[in-house]
Design brief:
The chain is an all-alpha fold and 373 residues long. The chain has a domain at 172-292. Helices cover 63% and strands 0% of the residues. α3 (46-64) packs across α9, α4 (68-77) crosses α9 and α15 crosses α17 (334-346). The radius of gyration is 21 Å and the shape is globular. The two termini are 35 Å apart.
Length: 373
């Protein structure tokens, strides 16, 4: 809905500020990135990941002459819709919601900022700008085919032009996500002893960066050496995106954001060579980290938590807190009720989901350590 302009901040700054003040944003503090949040204070959570993505995104946007506030707002909001236990929780909830339209974390982020945040007197959600909503919906590219129901609902109200690419700012947010997790997952995997410094030195980009550090700082403390090497990996990715994207923007001859949207291809990209090298890093992380045997054991345990909470709440929705009861009473059918239950479970933190499962089933909490993203 229309709002008066602020005298001291732009509309995109206001978007960013409202995202930061959202309850869903705070709850990211206790949601899985790779490791369950209580397994160690040094591991990334969804919150610290989102902050790192936003920092990278602002840097790239500034270098390319884009709007840093819009870029930052999309980056901070991109993971708002994640369930407890990362993609493992999402997979379990999607399977449970399949009869009712499924579940998608990107669509859920849109639902949160347009419906579920209920703090303001005049509107539900955060009343974000169209450009910010578009960026959250399409930062990974055009959305075609059958839409997730939550995204279809939002698109019916705002027409986000889902068949086109998003703004360059949203495209920056998407690649900043790749940069952040490729870098910090290597560091967190090393910290968790899932693999060694020697092993990742066989990877493209990484080995070159370790060699640079060894030449510049012989006999450096192993932990400082690791950090110096991986910050160079970070820098290689950021520099590549800036250089490649600057050339693509110039080549496109785009004169407006509408030109960017209708170009038919993204203008924010890695170079072909670096993209190929990143596939090797991703394949390594997938095998050695996201699908490590210890991780897979816990994946089954936490999937069961979501799988068992859903029917409990669907069968007795009054088990949910009182502030949800008005929505429950207004639900006209089982699909509407299931979507309310899905909203509630998706909003849980890892810690709360585990505690609620113990409370409702009487069974002990899982004992494993790492959870796949």
């Amino acid at each position: 809905m229309p709002e008066d302009e602020s005298s001291f901040r732009s509309c995109f700054q206001r978007d960013r500020d409202r995202i930061i003040h959202a309850s869903a944003f705070r709850r990211l503090k206790h949601k899985t990135q790779v490791f369950v949040e209580h397994e160690g204070d040094s591991y990334r959570t969804r919150l610290t990941h989102s902050i790192e993505v936003a920092q990278v995104a602002r840097t790239i946007a500034g270098a390319l002459g884009l709007d840093p506030e819009l870029t930052e707002a999309v980056a901070l909001a991109h993971d708002l819709g994640h369930t407890p236990f990362g993609h493992t929780g999402e997979d379990a909830l999607h399977a449970l919601m399949r009869p009712y339209g499924g579940f998608d974390h990107n669509a859920q982020a849109i639902r949160i900022v347009t419906k579920l945040e209920r703090h303001y007197a005049e509107f539900d959600g955060c009343n974000l700008t169209w450009e910010c909503l578009e960026g959250i919906a399409k930062h990974n590219g055009p959305v075609v085919g059958e839409l997730p129901w939550a995204l279809a609902e939002c698109n019916g109200a705002f027409d986000l032009e889902l068949h086109t690419h998003a703004s360059a700012e949203a495209q920056v947010a998407a690649l900043s996500d790749d940069i952040a997790y490729n870098n910090h997952d290597l560091l967190d995997g090393l910290r968790a002893d899932l693999f060694s410094d020697d092993e990742i030195q066989a990877l493209p980009i990484v080995g070159v960066c370790y060699a640079e550090v060894d030449r510049a700082y012989p006999n450096l403390d192993p932990y400082r050496r690791r950090h110096e090497a991986l910050r160079r990996v970070f820098g290689v990715m950021v520099s590549d995106v800036i250089d490649t994207s600057a050339a693509l923007i110039a080549e496109s001859r785009a004169q407006s954001v509408e030109d960017i949207r209708h170009l038919g291809r993204p203008v924010i990209q890695f170079s072909g060579q670096l993209w190929a090298q990143l596939q090797d890093i991703r394949a390594f992380l997938f095998t050695r980290m996201y699908r490590a045997p210890s991780v897979m054991e816990v994946r089954a345990e936490v999937s069961k938590i979501v799988e068992e909470l859903f029917p409990i709440y669907l069968g007795d929705p009054r088990q949910m807190p009182a502030r949800w009861h008005a929505d429950i009473e207004a639900a006209g059918n089982e699909a509407a009720l299931a979507r309310i239950v899905s909203d509630y479970i998706a909003g849980m933190t890892d810690r709360f989901a585990i505690q609620d499962h113990v409370r409702l089933t009487g069974r002990p909490a899982p004992t494993g350590h790492s959870i796949p993203i």
